[in-house]
Design goal:
It is found in: Endoplasmic reticulum membrane. This protein is α+β, with helices and mostly antiparallel strands. Helix content is 18%, strand content 37%. The protein has 4 helices and 17 strands.
Length: 233
């Protein structure tokens, strides 16, 4: 992760014409393994300024509502807003900022993690919106590459541990209530309930080993999420 490569991305713009925030290298990440390597959280993966800058960039692009027909039609209930961009440089920047080290010792069926899916999605959940119980499918990207993990990075949520002076003056508009990501095991047993925290990464295995999970209803504030997938080859 050289300085020259980082500088080359500082003024980089997506094909949409949008300028993404600079992502700083992450050191001494705290990794919480909630269920071995199947479910992991990483607090403070994005800084507060990075999270807020991504929200601003996403809002400048404009979200599109995404819904579903619901369980009666064989689909998970879905009500949120979404943006999708294809951006290899952005995917590489996030991957090389620290995720590559996190996955360096994880092998799945003899394959190793090689990067992030360049299909980057941003989700926005306003009050009353949620995503019902569902599983995430693996994506075959060709050339022996397929996705194995879902990466979610919460861009809003409870403040990170930055000291009291850093959170003074936060208005009610920044407070997020609800929107937890909840995972279930056999017989609908509760595996984990993850409350959104600004900048926290949530990583979980998907495909044939994906746990049933849902995004609970937002009752106050706005929930923003950065989403991609970890590719193995």
């Amino acid at each position: 992760m050289g300085d020259a490569k980082g500088k080359g991305r500082e003024k980089k713009k997506a094909k949409t014409g949008n300028e993404w925030p600079v992502i700083k290298p992450k050191r001494d990440l705290l990794v919480n393994r909630l269920k071995g390597n199947d479910l992991i959280t990483v607090p403070n993966f994005f800084t507060s300024s990075e999270s807020k800058a991504f929200i601003q960039a996403a809002e400048s692009l404009g979200f599109v509502h995404q819904g579903s027909l619901g369980p009666a039609h064989g689909e998970a209930y879905r009500d949120n807003d979404r943006i999708s961009v294809n951006d290899q440089l952005l995917a590489d920047a996030v991957w090389e900022s620290g995720l590559n080290k996190l996955f360096s010792d994880i092998k799945i069926r003899g394959k190793v993690a090689v990067g992030l899916n360049p299909n980057i999605r941003f989700y926005r959940y306003n009050v009353g919106q949620r995503f019902g119980r569902h599983i995430d499918e693996s994506v075959d990207l060709g050339d022996g590459k397929h996705t194995v993990y879902t990466l979610l990075i919460y861009l809003s949520g409870s403040p990170q541990s930055r000291g009291k002076s850093d959170v003074k003056g936060s208005g009610d508009s920044e407070i997020l209530v609800g929107g937890e990501t909840v995972f279930y095991g056999p017989r609908n047993s509760l595996v984990a309930e993850v409350a959104p925290a600004e900048g926290m990464a949530l990583i979980h295995i998907h495909g044939d080993k994906c746990m049933l999970h849902e995004a609970r209803n937002v009752t106050k504030g706005v929930k923003y999420v950065f989403r991609s997938d970890v590719i193995f080859a």
